[in-house]
TrEMBL record:
Name the UniProt record assigns to this protein: Co/Zn/Cd efflux system membrane fusion protein
Keyword check for Transport: yes
Ranges of residues in domain CusB-like beta-barrel: 184-255
Gene3D superfamilies given in the database record: 2.40.30.170, 2.40.420.20, 2.40.50.100, Helix hairpin bin
Single Gene Ontology MF annotation: efflux transmembrane transporter activity
Pfam families: Beta-barrel_RND_2 (PF25954), BSH_RND (PF25917), RND-MFP_C (PF25967)
Primary subcellular site in the record, as a coarse category: other
Length: 365
């Protein structure tokens, strides 16, 4: 007896192919346990803790320069030298006049004890000595002013003079910036007042140095809230041993104020906001496809059993409301609504509805 192959399976295969092509392609990520930190992010400009112009306190020709722009200096370090010949001559003259006044006063002391001079003459000699001593100290001070010294420790950011220039009193010669540490001041909304504290660790990322993060800490928090803006000032400090950070750089500061070591996290891209509710679409198995009807042959003919591989499980998108916790960059913590291992749709979530059949792309997590 001849066995006839059944031709009735082709329409069923076509239906399965059509159904598969109608499924929405999506990408998904697996909810997993991982540490996550709670932080506040703000932007600001790096500023030096201290900066000042180095000004001359006397006049004179600039004879020597000991530093250049970019050099680090310590407080009291010699930066430049003015012509001190006139100042030294004034010191010598004042010293001679003071010595003369000392000798005159010594004679007056002996004479007053013997009542050889009036009291008024003795007092005048005493005052003359004090005047000459003050003049001598003043002359020494003017000599010291010819040495231009650093008033603070820092980096020479600018030199404004050249050797041979005639320097006048109060003229600026250098600009020094104290970059240890550098500071960023954040204007933080008052709702964050209870979460931020002095000493908390922070990280800084600057536009000029992409991919690098610089650690720091919260130095101080303003005790009052600005009523006009509803913010309070938070000052963060950064010590950069590499000296890559410069005053004036703009960057983002992340203040980490709490951390959970075993949080359930998913990509932030999986979240949807609808009607004031936060939700995600979870990939679940749908109802198994119905088996195809058995093929029928002609009367009197035997029908061969068609061997087919089992149909792939149908996957559907199921909407679940979730409660979120901390957010850290591209990740978010899920406090309620998901379990470890759940797959959430990250790409294509706007194209599906509750119960939509989906096809998870192979490069999905």
């Amino acid at each position: 007896m001849l066995l006839a192959a059944c031709g009735g399976g082709q329409p069923a295969a076509d239906k399965e192919a059509a159904a598969a092509s109608a499924r929405i392609p999506v990408e998904a990520a697996v909810a997993s346990r991982a540490p996550i930190a709670a932080s506040y992010s703000g932007t600001g400009t790096l500023e030096a803790q201290g900066e000042t112009d180095v000004v001359s306190k006397t006049s004179g020709v600039l004879l020597k320069l000991y530093v250049e722009e970019g050099m680090r200096v310590q407080k009291g370090q010699l930066l430049a030298q003015l012509d001190d010949a006139g100042a030294r001559a004034s010191v010598a003259q004042s010293l001679a006049q003071m010595r003369k006044a000392e000798a005159t006063y010594a004679r007056a002391e002996r004479a007053i004890k013997q009542q050889l001079i009036p009291r008024a003459e003795y007092d005048q000699d005493k005052y003359d000595l004090e005047t000459q001593r003050a003049a001598y100290e003043g002359a020494k001070l003017q000599l010291a002013y010819t040495r231009i010294e650093a008033p603070i420790s820092g980096v020479i950011s600018r030199r404004m003079v050249k050797i041979g220039n005639l320097i006048q009193p109060n003229q600026a010669l250098f600009h020094i910036v104290d970059m240890e540490p550098l500071q960023v001041t954040l204007n933080v909304p008052e709702r964050e007042l209870g979460t931020l504290k002095a000493g908390q660790p922070v990280k800084l990322a600057v536009d000029a140095l992409p991919g690098e993060a610089f650690p720091g800490s919260v130095a101080r928090i303003a005790p009052v809230v600005d009523a006009s803006s509803g913010t309070f000032r938070v000052t963060c400090e950064f010590r950069d041993d590499t000296h890559a950070l410069k005053p004036g750089m703009f960057g983002r500061v992340d203040v980490v104020y709490d951390q959970r070591r075993d949080a359930l996290v998913i990509p932030r891209a999986a979240l949807i906001e609808e009607d004031g509710e936060t939700a995600v679409f979870v990939v679940e198995r749908g109802a198994p496809p119905k088996p195809a009807a058995p093929a029928k042959g002609k009367p009197g003919e035997a029908v061969a059993a068609e061997t087919k591989p089992p149909a792939a499980p149908v996957l559907v998108a199921k909407r679940r409301a979730v409660k979120i916790g901390y957010a850290d960059g591209s990740r978010v913590e899920i406090r309620e609504g998901l379990a470890p291992g759940d797959r959430v749709i990250t790409i294509g979530r706007n194209a599906v509805r509750d119960g939509t059949e989906v096809q998870v792309l192979e490069n999905a997590q």
